[in-house]
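Help: read this over?
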Amino acid sequence: VIPVASVNGTSYTTLAEALSAASAMTGDVTVEIYEKVTLNQSLSGSYSSIKFVGKDTDAEIYLDVQGYITATGKNVAFEDLKLSKSPGGFITNAGFMNVAFGVYDVTEVTYTNCVFANGAYASSGNVTYTGGCIFKRSHDKYGLWAYGNVDVTVNGCTFANDRGIKMYAEGAAKTVDLTVKNTDFSAVNNKPAIVLTYGEKVTLQGNT
């Protein structure tokens, strides 16, 4: 049986097995991904942070949920991965978090050199996209949803979609702080590249 993931040098044939092993570990945990795997559970355990790293060109995490996954109190990172999401639209208990890839109820999430095949969402904590991330179309048009109470930084990325970023909150009491730097919106032909419904602050620098 070919392993699809490993944790601290031990190989596993499913991501669920790898996450089960990781949940008992403390400190910082790294999960290496070798091919397409399915994620359908929240991220919880004794560890303080968990990092997913793609180790092959086929490395992909497919988020197969209706709603969202959480990582309460954790720092989470994704690096060198294709990230995809099962089809979904607005639903009552998850809002627009069901339309794209993301992690909710989290302290910090960092995405480095990732391709979002069905877009991304950021909805809590501090979320950073960097190192050449590519945003394709979500299940509800936009490449990135900045949604709810969240601080979002997009640096050195590309929007390969006819729509860019949607800043949104269900009520003015929720705030979004968005910083976008050195990012390519040239493929976005449905302007504006950033659409604001509710937001606290927008900082733009060196974008095209």
